[in-house]
UniProtKB/TrEMBL annotation:
Amino-acid positions noted as binding Mg(2+) 2 in the UniProt annotation, renumbered to this chain: D105, D107, D120, E123
All copies of domain DUF402, residue ranges: 18-154
Superkingdom of origin: Bacteria
Protein task: Has nucleoside phosphatase activity towards nucleoside triphosphates and nucleoside diphosphates.
Any Pfam family the entry gives: DUF402
Binding site for Mg(2+) 1: N87, D103, D107
Transmembrane segments: none
Stated name of the protein: Nucleoside triphosphate/diphosphate phosphatase
């Protein structure tokens, strides 16, 4: 697997377990791209839902994807602080077309004071039954919910002080 190159503008594709497209982010600027880690940024990018509806993101965001972790993290930069939206997902792949992952419904929203809430447990249960998530996948996903909470509490990775600000500063160099 290659990696997207720093400065490339790529799409992000989110799928569901059954292989159907879930959501597409039209343009994200790659700030770091390796086989194991992709950090990207976007601002006011078009997002297309599976039903064809579109919307535009409201604020700058730094996106963190890792090939070994079953989650990805989006740090959204707002006037009152950094909010994080964390998707429990498959590790990402890069296939020359887009950064791709499977969205497994569970999400964690993290507020600027680092409090957090787990979201969409009901959607997860419904999709787990409908799409027949295998038991090993179910265990991996819940284990990664726990890992992600440890990262939040320990201010690790994208939750570390200055992480989002530093990558946002790099992103601004591409926008000038």
């Amino acid at each position: 697997m290659d990696a997207p190159m720093e400065g490339d503008r790529v799409q992000i594709h989110s799928y569901k377990h059954n292989g159907n497209i879930h959501r597409v982010w039209d343009e994200t600027t790659i700030l770091k791209g390796t086989q194991s880690l992709v950090i990207g940024a976007n601002d006011r990018t078009v997002v297309t839902e599976s039903d064809g509806r579109t919307w535009i993101t409201r604020e700058p965001a730094i996106c963190y994807f890792h090939s070994k972790h079953w989650f990805n993290i989006i740090g959204m930069i707002r006037e009152d602080g950094i909010y994080y939206y964390c998707n429990i997902s498959s590790p990402f792949i890069w296939d020359q077309e887009a950064v791709k992952y499977i969205d497994y419904d569970l999400d964690i929203k993290v507020f600027p004071d680092m409090t957090y809430i787990l979201l969409d447990e009901d959607e997860y249960e419904r999709h787990r039954r409908e799409m027949k998530y295998p038991e090993p996948i179910d265990r991996i996903l819940w284990s990664n919910v726990d890992r992600l909470i440890r990262w939040i509490r320990g201010r690790k990775g994208p939750f570390a002080p200055e992480f989002i600000d530093q990558w946002y500063e790099r992103y601004l160099t591409y926008r000038r």
